[in-house]
Amino acid sequence: CRRAGAWGEAIDLLRRMAERGLPPNSYAYSTAVSACADGGDWVRALQLLEEMAARGAAPSVHAYAAAIRACDRGGAHRQALKLLLRTMPRRGVRANDYAWNAAISACARAAEWRLALGLRGRMESGRRGAPPPNIYSYNSALSACDRASEWRAAHAIYESMGRLGVPPDRVSDNALLSAYARVGRWRESLAHLDGVQHLGRVH
C-alpha cells in the first residue's frame, strides 16, 4: 500500500485489523503514516501519530520522520517544525537526518529561507542533538533561498559546502543557478557555469 501511495488502503487495513481483534503494532502504524506522506495527507498522518500513542504503540523515529515528510508534501511547514522541535523532544524521540531534512524541505517549499537556514545551522552545530547535515540538507536550504530570491544566501551556502566536507552536486548547481536567474544575476550564472564545466559537472 505504502509503495503505491495508496494511503486510503493502508488506513483501511488498520481499521480491519482492529475490528478483527488484531491491534495494529508500531510497524503497521508507521507504514500507514508513510502512506499518508506519499499522498501529502499531513492531517491524517498526525492523527495516526496520536492514535498510536493512545493505543500504547509509541511512535518511532521513522513514524515521526514520515509524518514530517507528509507535512512537507502537504505544505504544512509549521506543523513539520512543531513535530521536529517540540513533539519529538517532549516524547524522548531523537530525530534522525531524514526528519531534519524533511523539515528543511518543508520550509523550502514555503520559501521560508530563514527557517530552513536555521535548521541547517542547528545541524552544523549539533544543537538539540541534531545530526550533521548532508547533501540533502544543503540542497534543501539552497532550494529555500532560490524560492525566496535570496541569491546571496544561496551563494554563501554553496561556497561553504566544500569547506564543510559536503561537495556540491548537480542539484546544488541547479539550485544556485536558479537563484541567480530569478533575480537576473547573469554574470554570476555564467561564471558558475564555467566553473562547473571545468569540474566536469556539465549541465
SSE layout:
Blueprint: H1 7-19, H2 26-39, H3 42-54, H4 61-73, H5 77-90, H6 97-109, H7 113-125, H8 135-147, H9 151-163, H10 170-182, H11 186-198
Briefly characterize the structure:
With 203 residues, the chain is mostly helical.
How would you describe this structure in keywords?
11 helices, 203 residues, mainly alpha, elongated
Describe this structure in words.
- By secondary structure, the protein is mainly α.
- It is 71% helix and 0% strand.
- Helix 4 runs parallel beside helix 6 (97-109), helix 6 runs antiparallel to helix 7 (113-125) and helix 10 (170-182) packs antiparallel against helix 11 (186-198).
- The two termini are 37 Å apart.
* Intertermini distance: 37 Å
What is the CA-atom radius of gyration, in angstroms? 19 Å
**Could you list the spans in which at least 5 consecutive residues all have pLDDT below 50?**
1-5
Total beta strands: 0
Please, what is the oligomeric state? single chain
Mean of pLDDT: 88
Q: Strand count, sense and closure of the main sheet?
A: none
Q: What percent of residues adopt helix (DSSP H or I)?
A: over 70%
Order of helices and strands: HHHHHHHHHHH
Count of helical stretches = 11
Note the overall shape: elongated
